Amino acid sequence: MSEALDPTPYDALLLLSFGGPEGPDDVVPFLENVTRGRGIPKERLKEVGQHYFLFGGVSPINDQNRTLLDALRKDFADHGLDLPVYWGNRNWAPYLTDTLRELVQDGRRRVLVLATSAYASYSGCRQYREDLAAALATLRDEGLAVPRVDKLRHYFNHPGFVRPMIDGVLKSLADLPEDVRDGAHLAFTTHSIPTAAADTSGPAETHGDGGAYVRQHLDVAALIADAVRAETGVDRPWQLVYQSRSGAPTSPGSSPTSATTWRSGTRPVPRPWSWSRSASCRTTWRSCTTSTPRPRRRPRSSACRCAARPPSAPTPGSPPPSANWSWSVPPPRAGAR
Questions:
Q1: Architecture of the structural domain at 159-277
Q2: Residue 228 pLDDT grade (very low, low, confident, very high; cuts 50, 70, 90)
Q3: Where is this region: Disordered (predicted)?
Q4: Is the dihedral of CA 319, 322, 326, 331 positive or negative?
Q5: For residue 113, which of 73, 86, 94 has the smallest C-alpha distance?
Q6: Mean pLDDT, residues 211-219
Q7: Which end of the chain is more exposed for a tag (fewer CB within 10 A), N or C?
């Protein structure tokens, strides 16, 4: 074992995730948590819930987080890192507020937060920070000591996040028949969000159309495509496509969709596609700090300031950096851009 690592000033790591139902009876209550305050009829939630019922009412996210927790704890122990790991969710048990209360009762005062969301957007960054601030406010109202909470930065281009997707693409290509392998195109799929939400994920003048949400996905797709080209010697066409549309039916969402890409007749000869899911839960670097509770109110702009690329960050298509950077920003202010 290498020399023991010192986690100072942190005395705990909090894995913060979205949460999901773990049985049919959980589905509608879970969706009510997700959509609380939006006035969505229960009948509509039951309709949406059919997607979960197809899989027995169980989302895979909780078991994936349990696996990640076990891996983190083992990795910390293997490297002599004495840092307890806790788990809290925004929308299902174990709930964030309950977990933070447990942290405080265990004497934790400086907490590092790993959110299972790699990209910038209101729901992928700022809302996590708002939920952290709201949970801290609840603890303060209960008379408990409020710990300082530091949120890790977006990790979309971290080597530990990118490399498994490179390996997945290479394996998918190897599984294709040899006579079509070199002609295969690459499609990188991710969650569709309303275009209005994407546009406020980071300034368009810095990131282009679709804000930081689209730019970051294009960056990681380019990193994967470049690595696949380097390892196979084949320069393949690739495209970023979207799935799992969210938002109101009347609101335009990110496009093109994975379905339209699959059915596309724009090419005279249909070609095989290799698909890569641009989502996971891995990180190393710190970004945002939330130590003072703020009002839970959706700001005019949903851009999370930790979405801004620091000067040393990689440019699109460049290899991800091997060294860490670290910076902090204050919690979001209601109405702040």
A1: 3-Layer(aba) Sandwich (3.40)
A2: very high
A3: 244-337
A4: positive
A5: 86
A6: 94
A7: N
